[in-house]
């Protein structure tokens, strides 16, 4: 058995799902370290995009072992199928394989509750436990990181209210996303590159869908694919994480090609206030004329059920699809760990971004608990990152451009 290693202090940069999962793993150790989370967003809560999440095996395992929420967290889709352009189910595409679908906001609130005690409607009536809590701070922009020798790692950041601050910890975990500041400071050669298309995303209350739409969307993971077009959708928990039938949301994701550097892409990613967003055009930011044009386009190119769902979505948002992967998961002689999207940004076709965060946290728990060595931890995390990242590129290039990345 490998030697147990429990640090005394850990700073986690990034307070979204990956950061919270790693914090909870640390807080669940027999002798937990002091955990401090530095989140860049100036608001106390990260903005809820209303996004759906496929709850894969790793995510389900993490929530069962570490979060122990005392409630179901996902809607089950017993089957998946494809529609043709007329909206008819293609019989040969029907696959009876159950998958679980949840929402980013439900996972986030459950994690915040366990990690630092945040109360919300999502956790009303759920049982608390006696694990220690992390120190969670928002409005923290990291500006520098340096090796402090035997003391660990010194991190410097600017706080939105208190100016420049610094602290030293045994380890720093970079869970600050695909545009990770920690990765940029320590491994600046790793680039985040635009892949040539975006994901339009939105949700519609299931009760607002017509009978024809509900017939193909309810209890189904539903796809439509045409050259340069793919749209998929599934039911997710509704307001405050409810799973009650009639109160759930239909979540859709529509991939559309926009060439880099074009006026079309610039117009798409420019919000109602004239600000050009590089990666995400958030909920509520889209210009009315852009949304109207896309809804009209949906009627031309999508099956009628999907055109209906897009048309009934009041505030969709857009994510530019990008690629990034670091050459290694540890930096500064192993004192700094890259996890989740900071290590490798998966294309959403893999439905594995949240799963990567969960896998990384679960594997860290095995290492710190003495079940595997540090070398095995590094190997497993990098293997998962490289394998799924490459698979996502293959899926996206084939879906959107009809090509395989290995042969162009």
From TrEMBL:
Residue ranges the record marks as coiled coil: none
Could you name the domain of life of the organism this protein comes from?
A: Eukaryota
Mind telling me which Pfam families this protein's record contains?
FAD_binding-like (PF22607)
Signal peptide stretch:
none
2,6-dihydroxypyridine 3-monooxygenase substrate binding domain mapped to chain residues: 194-323
PANTHER family, per database record: MONOOXYGENASE-LIKE, OS06G0597600 PROTEIN
Protein name as annotated: 2,6-dihydroxypyridine 3-monooxygenase substrate binding domain-containing protein
Please name the source species. Oleoguttula mirabilis
């Amino acid at each position: 058995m490998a030697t147990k290693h429990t640090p005394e202090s850990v700073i986690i940069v990034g307070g979204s799902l990956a950061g919270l999962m790693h914090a909870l793993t640390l807080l669940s150790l027999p002798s937990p370290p002091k955990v401090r989370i530095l989140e860049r967003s100036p608001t106390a809560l990260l903005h809820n995009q209303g996004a759906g999440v496929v709850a894969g095996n790793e995510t389900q395992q993490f929530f069962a072992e570490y979060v122990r929420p005392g409630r179901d967290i996902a809607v089950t889709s017993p089957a998946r199928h494809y529609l043709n352009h007329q909206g008819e189910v293609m019989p040969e595409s029907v696959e009876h394989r159950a998958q679980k679908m949840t929402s980013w906001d439900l996972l986030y609130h459950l994690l915040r509750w366990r990690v630092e005690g945040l109360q919300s409607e999502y956790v009303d009536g759920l049982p608390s436990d006696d694990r220690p809590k992390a120190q969670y701070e928002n409005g923290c922009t990291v500006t520098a990181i340096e090796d402090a020798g035997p003391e660990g790692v010194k991190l410097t950041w600017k706080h939105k209210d208190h100016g420049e601050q610094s602290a030293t910890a045994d380890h720093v975990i970079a869970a600050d996303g695909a545009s990770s500041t920690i990765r940029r400071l320590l491994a600046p050669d790793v680039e985040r590159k635009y892949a040539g298309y975006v994901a339009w995303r939105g949700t519609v209350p299931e009760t607002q869908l017509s009978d024809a739409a509900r017939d193909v969307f309810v209890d189904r993971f539903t796809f439509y694919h045409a050259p340069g077009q793919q749209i998929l959708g599934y039911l997710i928990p509704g307001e405050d994480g409810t799973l009650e039938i009639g109160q759930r949301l239909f979540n859709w994701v529509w991939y559309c090609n926009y060439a880099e550097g074009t006026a079309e892409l610039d117009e798409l990613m420019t919000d109602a206030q004239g600000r050009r967003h590089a990666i995400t055009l958030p909920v509520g930011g889209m210009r009315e004329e852009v949304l109207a044009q896309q809804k009209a386009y949906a009627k031309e190119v999508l099956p009628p059920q999907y055109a209906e769902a897009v048309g009934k979505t009041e505030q969709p948002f857009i994510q530019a699809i990008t690629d990034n992967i670091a050459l290694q998961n540890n930096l500064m002689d192993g004192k700094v760990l890259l996890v989740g999207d900071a290590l490798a940004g998966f294309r959403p076709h893999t439905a594995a971004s949240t799963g990567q965060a969960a896998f990384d946290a679960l594997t860290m728990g095995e290492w710190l608990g003495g079940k595997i060595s540090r070398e095995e931890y590094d190997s497993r995390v990098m293997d998962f990152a490289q394998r799924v990242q490459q698979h996502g590129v293959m899926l996206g290039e084939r879906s959107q451009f009809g090509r395989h990345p290995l042969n162009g």
